[in-house]
Amino acid sequence: MGLGKKYFVDYYWNKLLQFFLMKCAKLIIFMITINFSYSTWAEDRKECLLSPSNLSEMLKLSYKSFDQTLPDGGWRGLANKGCELEATKVLEIYHLHHYDELAPWQAQILYWHAGQMYAMQGLTDLALARFKKSYSTEEKADDKFKWNAYVKGSIAFLEHDMNSLTKARDELKSANTDAQSNFKILESFIRCFKKSYKEAYNHDCKP
Description:
Blueprint: H1 3-44, H2 52-59, H3 63-67, H4 76-79, H5 84-97, H6 104-120, H7 124-131, H8 147-158, H9 162-172, H10 180-191, H11 197-200
Helix pairs in contact: 5-6, 6-7, 8-9, 8-10, 9-10
């Protein structure tokens, strides 16, 4: 092989080595970055971890203690710490564990709260599936709480249906004082229609 040809081969071989070394270096840096990010995330999420014994104790709670004790009873303790994913898992497991014991209205509310937790995480399809199971089948036409109007309005927001959302808000206007917080949430959904559920689910939300 002549010197010229050897020089040509060596030159391009060195270039090829440099290329692969550069790619490998980028990959190594990427993997280190991902590993660091995951470790940081895992460290930040320690407070969200639920041990088997903690879960077992939670499953022993009555429906009232698990779902209706404010501000942080049952699943709410996790949700209030920003652990929506873990709160959702606990809601779903509790629902399945007590499925045969729950009154229809209790099952309906558990579906609702699971839907809210999914919506807070941007998991819209899962949220809609749960919301659509949370309608009250016992609500009368002249019911003063108008729960189903609130459900319809929340579904309309997730489906980006302003017309249906506005109708549900108007229907809820005539509800009793106990439902005024629900009315205000639908008002917020209208005001912050282009925002996420988590952002819009706030009386102080600004468009």
